[in-house]
Amino acid sequence: MELIKKKVRMLKRKCEAVSQITFDEDLNVPDVKPDIGRMIQKKGDIQIEDIQISEGRAYITGALAVCLLYVSDSQERKIQSLMGTLRIGETLNLEGLENGDKVQLKWDIEDLSVQLIHSRKLNIKALVTFTAYVEEMLETALPVSVEDEEISKKKQEISVMGAAVHKKDTMRVKEDIALSSNKPDIYELLWNTVEIRGLDIRAENDKIGVKGELFVFALYSGNDDNNSLQWLEHSVPFYEEVECPGCSSDMIPNVEIAVPQSDLKVKQDEDGEERIISVDTVLELEMKIYEEEELSLLMDVYTPVRDCQAIREKQKLENLLVKNFSKCKVNDRIKTENSQGKILQICHSDGNVKVDSTRIVENGIETEGVVRVRILYIVSDDEMPFYAMETMIPFTHVIEAKGINEQCVYHLRTDLEQLSTTMIDSDEIEVKIVMNLNALVMNQMEMGIIREIEERELDREKLKSMPGIVGYQVQQGDTLWDIAKKFYTTIENIMELNGLESEEVKPGDGLLLMKKVER
Question: 152-178 and 274-302: which strand pairing?
Answer without folding.
Answer: antiparallel
